[in-house]
Amino acid sequence: MPAARSPQLLAGVPRGLACTVGVLAGAQVALALSPGRELAGGVVLLALALALQLAVAVLLVWRARRAGDDRSLWQRLAIATGLVSGGLATATALTAGHGAGAATTVPLAVAHLAAFPLVYGGMVLWNRDSTAVADPSDTLLGVAAVLAVVAVTDTVLGHVGGGLATASWWQVQPALAQTAAGLVLLGTAATVPFISGMSRDPRAWWLTAALAAQVVAGTAVATGHPQGWAAAAVGACCLCVAAVRRPTPVPRTTTDPSTTTIGAFVVLIASTVVLVVLALCDAGATAAWCGGIAATGAGIRLLLNVRDLAQLTQSRREALTDDLTGLANRRAVLRRVEELCVQGTPLVVGVLDLDKFKEVNDGLGHSAGDDLLRLVAQRLQHVLATGDSLGRLGGDEFALIAQVAPGTSPADRAAALDRDLQHWMAAPFEVGGLTVHVALSLGLTCHAGAPVPPAALLRQADAAMYDAKRSGSRVVHYEADRHGDSSGRLALVEELRAGVLGGELVLHHQPQVDVATGRTVGVEALVRWAHPTRGLLQPGEFLPLAEVHGLMGPLTNEVLAQAVAQAATWHRAGRELRVSVNLSASNLLDTGLPQRVADLLRAHALPPSALVLEVTETVLLSDPERSLAVVAALADLGTTVSIDDFGTGYASLTYLHQLPVAELKLDRSFTADLLTDARAAAIVASTVRLAHQLGLRVVAEGVEDPATLVHLRALECDESQGFLHSPPLPAAELEAWLAVRERLRAGVRA
Predict the structure, then answer these.
(1) Are 543 and 730 in contact (CB under 8 A)?
(2) 331 CB contacts (<8 Å, ≥6 apart)?
(3) Strand duo 475-477 + 505-514: pairing
(4) pTM to 2 decimals?
(5) Are 320 and 332 in contact (CB under 8 A)?
(6) CB-count burial class (<10 Å; 0-12, 13-18, 19+) for 86
(7) What are the strands of the beta sheet with 389-394, ordered from one edge?
């Protein structure tokens, strides 16, 4: 029965290779510590060490091929172990040919120095939890650190004296450099548990132990103590244990560029001290060269760190700044509100939106719109007091955070803020060679200082602002009873967005009746929303949200598609009814609308004259030039253009002259007062006569009683629409209503 695999080890560990490493390490330790090791000679010990290094290299190659984020580290360690094996092979050959001596330690030192950049780069990458290529500046710092240690050691030896101080430089310097490299690697490995947050991963401690043993081994062998080979064997075993252990999942922390600045400062200070000592005392040139190169390398690394820190500071600043205006962005606004709330500071939060900003973008171009936003941002700065903040939330929305001074109530500060805003925004702006007046919709909420989530205050001000925009008010203060459902309103917007695409919109049709004959000649298509949980919603409950949140385009497309399809169905059944559809302000700014209407009519084989497109005078006033172009293009298709709510605007006669209008719809306010107000009756009579002289038909809306219908017949009004005839009905119910009405009319004729 196979032995159970340890849950601490990686799957598929080559047990034979691991046992080989253990046996070779044990033999090396035994031979290095044996009292008769001189009899065995240095060749046997070196050959045993070479075999152990080769076995470790093979094990590391196996580990490097395992999937994992730390693959780069094990690849580098495997190559480094291969280089050390090459140095051991060279030392073994030299010892076999010339006997053991100082010359045999030089190849080992050179091999360790060649392996240093690989191991150092791997440890730095492991610190940063990265598999990318090592940064050359990191390796530069490591080399500078090694040279600094060599310079310090040379300086100390030059003053203390001893055997190493009098030995040849080619014997001493490689050994010193090997020890220095080992110390730098040991220091780098020791930072892994603390910088990268891996203190709970045993592999970090095993690697640190392996490098510590290698430092001891290298120093002992270089000074002629063969017992150091025992430490080398222990280090090899520790490295293998780290390789075969399963990674411990721990949260890794992202290192900051400032962490490497500490090491660069240490190297620079040590090198500078060495250079100062050498300037005051007579010492060897090797220490001077090493100290100078180390100081230069550390200085370069510090300059690169300064650059990185400057870029990091810039990135953090940009993350809190709006690119267009230079104001704080939404993230910075929320952070500032949170700071003031934590301090318990009473404050007023305002969200303001530019009215009809889309018209500036559409009419003058986005560049002009951007210029206007920058000018508005500059002017809004004037309303800020000390400690106040201004930010841009996105689009044409801005946020104001105003602190309440001691002795002043939040309501007084809100009123002063409103006055200042209206004062500074009253003057026009020069944009794109034109003078543009900007009106604001402002939502304000007051905070007395109690703890509250900053996002909640922003939502409250936002809800009040949307209320101001919907109602046409200049400023609205947040009230929990009125605006507490702001999250529900936003949820309703998202549900509407899905409902438009999901087929939840339905049409109800209100008949339009010929006043003279009583025949139904057309219908007005009125949209309803069959909400899955709230039931059938009327237009007033969702159309304002659709207009504000940019959903009128897809909503109108859906209404047009259903209306044209229904009209085509009626025409195929022999009911030649006109279908009227209302267009909003955003629809008339859409230059692609005429082509979509033409495609619908062609797809359903519906005569263009069967479609009536209703526009209001106030809609035309939003952008006259562009709106008139879209209306003219719709009329060119052969569709009928109708001016809805005629008489409520200020430029009716102008539009009758400029537009290819075929129909006028009298506003229900005139129809309701027709029997009781002589002035209203005179306006209706003159409007009917004017329309007929221009060749237009007149439809009276809001007809509720027979007496009004009789009066309209006397005035020769063409058609009537209202609850006297029928409320808006679904298509199937309308067809039933038409059938009953046709039977009644047939009975009357009989």
Answers:
(1) no
(2) 319, 320
(3) unpaired
(4) 0.46
(5) yes
(6) middle
(7) 389-394, 397-403, 347-354, 440-447, 475-477
For residue 315, count other CB atoms closer than 10 A to its CB.
9
pLDDT at residue 228 tops 70: yes
Question: Hey, CA dihedral for 560, 564, 569, 571, is it positive or negative?
Answer: positive
Cβ burial of 10 (10 Å; 0-12, 13-18, 19+) is middle
Give the bridge partners for 245, in sequence order.
9
345: closest CA among 353, 354, 337?
A: 337
CA angle at 200 for the pair 199 and 204, rounded to the nearest 5°: 60
H or E segment to which residue 402 belongs? strand 397-403
Rounded Cα gap, residues 614 and 634, in angstroms:
11
* Greatest distance between any 2 Cα atoms in the chain: 139
Find, among 568, 609, 539, the residue nearest to 731 by Cα: 568
- The alpha carbon of residue 649 and the mean position of all alpha carbons in its chain are separated, in whole angstroms, by 44
Provide the H-helix boundaries in 673-730. 678-693, 706-714
The mean pLDDT of 116-120, rounded to a whole number, is: 80
- Tell me which amino acid residue 326 is: G
Please name the residues in contact with 6: beta carbons below 8 A apart, sequence gap of 6 or more: none
Count of Cβ atoms closer than 10 Å to residue 499 Cβ: 21
Helix (H) / strand (E) element for 537: namely: strand 535-537
Q: Is 255 helix (H, G, I), strand (E, B) or coil?
A: coil
CA dist 390 and 204 (Å) reads 48
Domain 502-749 has CATH 3.20.20.450: yes
Give residue-wise pLDDT tens across range 504-538.
999 999 999 999 999 999 999 999 999 998 899 99
Phi, psi (deg, nearest 5) at residue 67:
-65, 145
Q: Can you give the residue ranges of every domain in the chain?
A: 15-313, 330-484, 502-749
Sign for the CA dihedral angle at 526, 530, 535, 540 comes to negative
User: Which residues are registered as beta bridge partners of 665?
Assistant: 699
Is the Cβ–Cβ distance between 299 and 268 less than 8 Å? yes
Contact present, 719 and 522 (Cβ < 8 Å) = yes
H/E stretch holding 486: helix 486-501
**Taking a C-beta distance cutoff of 8 angstroms, is the pair 28, 232 a contact?**
yes
Can you tell me the distance from the alpha carbon of 410 to that of 687, in angstroms, rounded to the nearest whole number?
53
Q: How far apart are CA 722 and CA 674, in angstroms?
A: 14
Which one, of 382, 360, 380, lies nearest residue 372 by Cα? Answer: 360
CATH topology of domain 330-484: Alpha-Beta Plaits (3.30.70)
Give the closest residue to 528 by CA, choosing from 514, 510, 548, 515. 510
Task: Give the pair of three-digit tokens for residue 587.
Answer: 């629809």
Q: Output the pLDDT for position 249.
A: 62
In this structure, what are the phi and psi dihedrals at residue 524, rounded to the nearest 5 degrees?
Answer: -105, 125
Q: In terms of pLDDT, which residue wins out, 183 or 440?
A: 440
Is the predicted pLDDT of residue 197 greater than 70, yes or no?
A: no
Kindly give the interhelix angle for 366-380 and 410-425, rounded to the nearest 10 degrees.
130
Of 725, 714, 710, residue with least CA distance to 688: 714
CB 376 within 8 A of CB 421: no
Question: What does the pLDDT average to over 276-288?
Answer: 64
Q: Which residues contact 697 (CB under 8 A, 6 or more apart)?
A: 662, 663, 664, 691, 718, 719
Residue with tokens 């010359």: 103
* Alpha-carbon gap, residue 15 to 25, rounded angstroms: 15
Under a CB-based contact definition with an 8 Å cutoff, are residues 415 and 383 in contact?
no
Residues 6+ apart with CB under 8 A from 324: 370, 373, 374, 392
CA count, 13 A, side-chain hemisphere, 230: 10
pLDDT digits 0-9 by tens, 410-454: 888 888 888 888 888 888 888 877 788 888 889 898 888 666 777
Task: At 176, list the tokens.
Answer: 């010193």
Helix (H) or strand (E) holding 524: strand 520-531
